[in-house]
Amino acid sequence: MNQTTADPFVAAFRGTFYGVLRWPQLDALWQRLRQNAEGWYVYAVGEPPPVAVSSADDLRIFLDEVDRLLRKEHDEDYCGIVYTDSFDQPSFVKIFDPHNLGVSCGFSDNPPLPGWILSRLPPVALDALPQTGSRRRWWQRLFGSA
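Now predict its structure.
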């Protein structure tokens, strides 16, 4: 990422996050987002960032689908691949792709970018490799984007 922290999205992206370690914690986070589903940007890193917030229905659909994907493809008894800036009043959520984890926890000079970001702030493009063909098709099926 070569963006400066002067951008509010980048500053928030680099801020403090808390790991969602257990599946029940993830259920609780999704429930909070569903209850307050207006005003969220849904950003698939590697795709062009959205220019408008998603509808509440689109956010709920995304949450259902990404939850299904994570539980199917991250076959562990723990979650550990979702991070939020707050459990009580989330405004930024990073969701890592189970097939592109690298070193998502611990220290790395070159940590992987999340697969998806939910943000109250308008996103800016993050330097990333394009999504794989299967992830791109998954995203297009959800939102019909090119």
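Strands lie at 18-20, 41-44, 82-84, 92-95, 116-119.
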